[in-house]
Amino acid sequence: VFMVLSLLSIVYGALRCNILAIRIKYDDYDVHVKPAAYLCIFLWRSFEIATRVTVLVLFGSVLRIWVFLVVLLNFLGFCLYPWVLFWLSKSPFPENIEKELSRVGTTIVLCLLTFLYAGINMFCWSAAQVKLSDPDLISKSQNWYRMTVYYIVRLMENAFLLLMWYIYRTDFYLYVCAPMLVLQLLIGYCMGIFFMLVFYQFCHPCKKLFSSSITEAL
After folding, report:
1. DSSP reduced 3-state for 91
2. Per-residue model confidence as pLDDT tens digits over 38-60
3. Which among 41, 92, 106, 174 would be 20 to 30 A from 180, CA to CA?
């Protein structure tokens, strides 16, 4: 019961972050979110987060040391990615975050922001993409390419972790139909991607402002 309540709480938080990110990106427009959009986001985040957590738990139950390496690589990769883009853009260091902050304080704030960004992206696609070269610190454009790469790589990673669990599973899972569980988790993650596509293609409140639809981008 507590696990279900915790999952619902996290999914609700992800849903609210999605809506907030849309309102920030399109603050010049009057955004009206329809019930169908709420439903798509809820299903999208539910399947995505639940399957991701389950995959990590299964993998960690048989390869306890290696799961720390997987989490660490994910965290460091997503944490350093905004800084790499910022370095490649050759933009000046952000100075207008807060007037009372010194350069060291600004650096600490940006590091905490990228830590939060990395923590979210380990489990699901972040609603707002960090862009340190932007005055608002978030990307206002819709990057279909980055989203596509994220979900392809994440699906491959989940499949690999499930394969490792299947190979090294212990007698604890003797009465579990392992192939069926692997198939269900992979289908569950694909269902999350499906509802994400439905949301951006049909239910996004600002889809008319996209330069191209997600199907055209794909």
Report:
1. coil
2. 999 999 999 999 999 999 999 99
3. 41
Q: List Cβ<8 Å contacts ≥24 apart for 32-36.
A: 32/205, 33/205, 34/203, 34/205, 36/202, 36/203
Q: What DSSP state is assigned to residue 209? A: G
Q: What amino acid is encoded at 127 in this protein?
A: A
The HSE-up count of residue 188 (CA atoms within 13 Å, CB side) is 19
| Tokens 């660490």, residue located | 72
28 membership: H or E segment, kind and range? none
Q: Residue 214 — pLDDT band, cuts 50, 70, 90?
A: confident
Least confident of 26-35, 169-178, 209-218: 209-218
CA dihedral 172, 174, 180, 182 (to 10 degrees): 40
d(CA 142, CA 126): 12
**Spatial distance between the Cα atoms of 215 and 218, rounded to a whole number of angstroms:** 5
Read off the tokens for 151. 């979900």
Would you state the structure tokens that stand for residue 211, as one six-digit string? 């330069």
DSSP conformational letter for 129: -
Q: What is the torsion angle, in degrees rounded to the nearest 10, for the CA atoms of residue 182, residue 185, residue 191 and residue 193?
A: -100
Q: Are 82 and 131 in contact (CB under 8 A)?
A: yes
Cβ(122)–Cβ(71) below 8 Å:
yes
In Å, how far are 49, 127, 141 from 24, measured between CA atoms? 23, 11, 11
Task: Report how far apart, in Å, the C-alpha atoms of 31 and of each of 197, 208, 211 are.
Answer: 20, 12, 18
CA distance 77 to 71: 10
